[in-house]
Amino acid sequence: MLINRRTFLYATGVLAVAPKVSFAQLRDTYYEVLLRHTRWAETQYDATAGRYRRTDFGFAVVLGNAVLLTRGTYDASLAGVEKDVLRDHTLATIKHFAASNVLAGGTEWGKTLFWDTTFQSYFVLAARLLWPDLDAQTRANVETIARGQADYTTSLGTANDPRSGSWTPNGLTGGHRGDTKLEEMGVYAQSLAPGLAWHGDGPGWREAFGRWSRNEAGLPAADLANPSTVDGTPISANTATNLHDTFIVENHGSFGPHYQEELWRTSGRNSVHFLLAGRPLPEVLTKQPNGELLWRTILATMSDAGEPLMPMVNDREHLYGRDVIPLAFRSTVLRDPMAAWAESALASRLLAYQAHPPVYRLAKFSGEAKYEPEARAELAISYLLHELRPPVAPATDFFTRAAITIDHGADPGLLTHQSAAAWAGTVTKPGFTKLAWQPAHDDWLFKISGATPMLLPPAAVTGRNTVAYQRIRDGFDATASVLRFADGFAGTATLPTGTIVCALPRPGRVDVHNLAMAGMPGLTGSRTYTGSAGRVTVQAREGFRVDELTLPETSARHVRMVGITPHPTYGYSLFEFEVGRGTVTASSFDPGYEPAKATDGDPGTRWAVARAERGRADSWISVDLGAATTVHRVRLRWETAAAGAYRVETSLDGAVWTTVAEYPRPDLSTPGWLDVDGRAGFVSRSSEPITVQGDTITVPAGLVEGYVRADLRKIAAEQAPQCPPGVRASTADGFLSLFNLSGADVTGTVRLRGTRLYRGTQVTTRDGTDYALTLPSATARIEAPWFTARGIPPGITAVVHDGQRVTFRGGPAMFVLTHRDGRSLPVVLGRAERTVSMPPATPFPINDLALGRVTFPNSVLPPGMSDPAAAVDGEQHTAWKPGPNGRMVVDLGTTRAIGEVDLQWTVGPAPPHTVTYSVDGKTYGTDATARYVAVSTGWRPGHASLRSIVVRT
């Protein structure tokens, strides 16, 4: 009995909820998934040819087969094929494709870096696993492939592969805007790994492998701060710029975390060759320049499924089979407990995902056939990594440790916030504008990928003002922004509680995942929506959408559908427009998709608008019934190109038209608040309702708050702040979120309910406070509720200086002041002003530009040096040990005018040291207008360590 058989019963609906897979079960889970996937793999077998297919590299299934044939307990009932048959199919395929590879003298495949060498790596590995069963000629061909590829790739130097068309790493310069070259450099490296692993060092092989591997995540500003060597070569020799300076990766024109994982995906493919061959891993696989800063941005977008969220790129979402290997590499080779947690979370979903139609497949949502054999191979490699390198124990507090805010800047267009309760990101990249939000990190709740709109208008952002608050410096993690559009402004805020706040210039849209995927949390085949107006359950729609519209009985000769909102890519297309027989016309049609095909009774034929008209909103299709007829219903069965909105019109003469029905019709329209499946919900501070239509939620313009599992009825009953014109404010979860949605500075008063006190000046009233507001144009900010004042009378002025001190005036009065950390202090206020301090509370925000910033050296430290991040972590018990002549650099994130740098050393003599500054991270001097601050030392044993570097304006 396989250990995960019970899990598969959960996945197929026999049991209710899939349990977590323990980390000890990972290898067995992968084995069982491979067994079940074999039923799909065998569909790639061509019985006439006697081998697996070449199309879409279907023959790469041999690697998964090889693992099943040489390891574990083979179960033919799960695999759907007897072991001896699978062995025969696999060996015949390896024999054929080893001979047909270009490097072995064939003409069918191979040698081409893009993408033959990826599948070549799988193929060589499969052959090595089955080496004793191969004939001498096949072995020789496999050896020729590995050697020949290493020779060919080395012969290219840093030039392009002429066989790969326009695909290029751009030499060793790389590139990061729109299309990272990290992936391409990784492919160059992986094409060399089989030769190095199985045949030792050939002429120039190791040098080329190291050069491409080191440069994958290279960034000059970081590398030049690092005197370390990897495989004997200085990191400072790296030249590639494959990442933005916030270590974010773009591909397909936008942020693509799937491609960010490519560093560890190719490393996993490479490592398994060395490990299986019994050779030491090249140092560059275990000491990856800047790799940990790259991983930090993955953690900042991780979901509860162990898969990074894809708020922009949409063609790699839920690609479960392929996303395993980066995590397996990090958890086994790099022994990363955070990756180990993510891998366990992902593995827990594999069987449930695999059981969902189309059954057995691992890349069912990818849209590209080649990803299926690739996913099988990657899962097989992950199995082997766990066999060859026992993994580290997973982290137990993943999202607490991963919590972070990062403003990646206007160019990448992402302001992101990972909290313990949710993920949120304000996206401003052209074509992807949205406030993406995943409560509880559940990437099967709301649709946020690609061009899918969410909350914000999908229009181009013409101005962006953002703030990323950090707990270490500000006392809390949060983000705030005001975005300018051609016709107005919008505001966003994300809070440490997982709550979001948005100030919308027009109604916002949220699309909900609604699938029946047994064993996957939340995907029960329906979503339940609850609001003050009632409750509705929306069933998951299977297949193409069908709209059944009941009309008031109408006498009509002509009936037509007039579009309002087309499918964003394909416009409008109908299999059936069922209203009666007659002559059919349309505003346009594509050849082969004429209007009459929507009424011909054939469910397989359809009408589609002309390609040139796909973007036209008011396209139409009309049926002339020939005479006046009583019409009371219309049925429309749509193709993928389904209208987001349309109306049905009737006419007696074909000239004067009357609207008799409109789509969408809300399933629920509710004022004030809406709960989504008990998982999350929205509170609207508007008189307009929140509506649910199918799997789409529409929230009204104005201030909207999003909560994770909260009492929305109670929250909606609380009065919203009263603001000056142009300003919106929220006190969600006690935090004061402020937005100036205008082009002018605003000074005025915000009227608040309750006794919370925020940084700044406020005067108490009978039921709250009047908060004195000054807010520059088109800006936002968030204030923490540092204090509450229980029993404070009206008319008291409270000036909150920071998270520790408050000045009161306007007494006499007696009340209790409570800090947000729970400490309380009775306050007796006379007629004189009194300042109250609450030590040991920290006086947030702290005036230190270095706190929590990225430091270098980072991923690879020189001998004798400890992590320089210890000098900016705000902790007094940690310190940076420079090591011999050690040097560290703090990246302030942006160029600032620096007024003071204070170095605090541990006990003992401070080493000789200098402080220098740089704008670009390359050239350092004494000009204190800088982004980078460097501390260079003459450290020797016996010298003190650097406890902190404090940088002030």
Automatic annotation (TrEMBL):
Residues 153-171 have a biased composition (Polar residues). SUPFAM superfamilies: Galactose-binding domain-like (SSF49785). Residues 565-662 form the F5/8 type C domain. Residues 153-172 are annotated as: Disordered. This is Discoidin domain-containing protein. InterPro entries: FA58C, Galactose-bd-like_sf. Pfam families: F5_F8_type_C.
